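call fold(seq) -> tokens
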Amino acid sequence: MSDTTKLKAAKRSDFGKGAARKIRRACNIPAVMYGHGTDPVHISLPGHDTMMALKQANALLTIVIDGSEQLALAKDVQRDPIKPVIDHVDLVVVRAGEKVTVDIGVHLEGEAAPETVVTLDNNTLQLEVLATNIPESLVVSVEGLTAGTQILAGQVELPEGATLVTDEDALVVNVTQAISEEALEAELAEAEAEAGIEREESDEESAESTGATEGERAGSTDATADEA
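ret:
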């Protein structure tokens, strides 16, 4: 069974924005817990402990209310757009032995072949897993992979008992040949020319152009002197 974080909650009977602000001022977080046909239970959670627990994606929580324990997963976490605080949490009730559908992050490890670029096209995969056995991440090795290599969702190794929900043909990792600086400059210049954009000379290009012009003038002066 996955490790769970135990949070002691308190039932609340006051609702609305005013009540929520009051809860947050007391360093707690308003939340609602529902699922399995039960009536929603409105609760407040300890602010610091809840924020620490929810740093891990798909964290399995044990919610303690009046001495009774209930397993739950955070279905929706509303965060303040400016301050590093949680405004509200929706919790869904789960039971041991029950399967749930969750998004699991993909973590790349290793180094691909030289002069290649590794692109992670899908940074999460959706799996059906036991609620008490949710993996923290899916590890995909790119060690030594050459340009042209692709890894599809169906090729990613899954934990025992997990079922892939994401389309098995979905592209997860794409390894391409790195483009040289010269080729990149040429492509950029071509694109700008097609768009009718005139490029401004860099200081280095301007200096080279000025030097070339002065050299031409000096050559012309010497030629005139020889003729005289």
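The longest strand covers residues 68-79.
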